[in-house]
Automatic annotation (TrEMBL):
This is Aldehyde dehydrogenase (NAD+). GO terms for molecular function: aldehyde dehydrogenase (NAD+) activity. The active site is at 245. It comes from Streptomyces africanus. Residues 13-459 form the Aldehyde dehydrogenase domain. The lineage of its organism: Bacteria, Bacillati, Actinomycetota, Actinomycetes, Kitasatosporales. Keywords: Oxidoreductase.
Amino acid sequence: MKAYDGMYIGGAWRPAAGQDVIEVVNPADEQVIGTVPAGTAEDVDTAVRAARAALPDWAATPPAERAARLAALRDVLTARADEIAETVTAELGSPLKFSQAVHAAVPIAVAGSYAELAATYAFEEKTGNSVVHHEPIGVVAAITPWNYPLHQIVAKVAPALAAGCTIVVKPAEDTPLVARLFADAVHEAGLPAGVFNLVTGLGPVAGQALAEHPGVDLISFTGSTAVGRHIAAIAAGQVKKVALELGGKSANVILPTADLAKAVNVGVANVMSNSGQTCSAWTRMLVHRGQYDEAVELAATAAAKYGERIGPVVNAKQQARVRGYIAKGVAEGARLVAGGPEAPREKGYFVSPTVFADVTPDMTIAQEEIFGPVLSILKYEDEEDALRIANGTVYGLAGAVWAGDEAEAVAFARRMETGQVDINGGRFNPLAPFGGYKQSGVGRELGVHGLAEYLQTKSLQF
């Protein structure tokens, strides 16, 4: 176990204001692997003041130079990719191959995309007799989750820096070690002091202080819808901009013309990925009644292969929460065809890959975000019924549609109330906007739309 000291503020590691620490636990074996300081309101204030002091010079830095700094950061992250993957595996429990392919590789790609955007984005444009100027919104508070700990940091930091903003990051208390590694990478890449600052701590203390701080111009938060509402209320009191990426209960709609086996197998893999701890996971599989029994059998077979392949969930509280939802599904009449509420191992916060059949749209497991390796399979009568079920939750973050004809899938996807839809297994695109409808959030991340969240617009008339 290693005791990590200090907060990264103003370009250096500085002593924390308080003495309290947070223990970081490896969820695979329940062993404490390190401690980090539990930040206070004083630490947050120091970090915000550092970001505020660095803002004028960074905002005035030419976009080409900001792009060069981001490219340097991308290169440092690339050189440290193995260390990133190993760190995420230790504190999140993700299998190492997944950490390498996703937790390390995706943030590197996102950082690179913003290095390019910073150099090419039209920060000024002419319309009629006006010049429209896009300038940094100011100091950003970034509060990030534990499920994709580095990706969510980079998805906020990279566009903020590309825009000319300065930033204070409060990472999730379960996964702060990769955030510290990222701070070291920022330092090695030579970003000016105060442009990026890191305060570790608990949400109700450090996160609350950061959201409330009057020196913050924008709060970018990724996490639960309940906490998102709380942050939005804080921001409303100060008329402060928010970007919120919240919960999801995404539908995977398999139309009758689709390749059923492929759609089911990819759908199961999507839900089991990252131990089900993905806000955009397709946790509701919608299948036509004529193909339903076959789909259930395929899904049960596919899920059984993940028993030894997925990692644990992040902590004991999350394990109990997911197992509670599984028990609730059974109690409400859903039929277990794979997995169940019993812990599959004596040690570690593991949950069995679970598949439910005979799920109805009104069941708890079909309406609420579980955030674990749990798939619900629902039956629909026709396309309109499928659409009604797909749109029948308070969420609208992501989804998928499968059909033999791409045009058929696209036509259905256009009617889904959700921010992103994969067509016939479409690949992840770091340039495509990501964000939700309804209670899945406000604003967008990634690509040019993600950059725009961190910009203020000013028009000059001539």
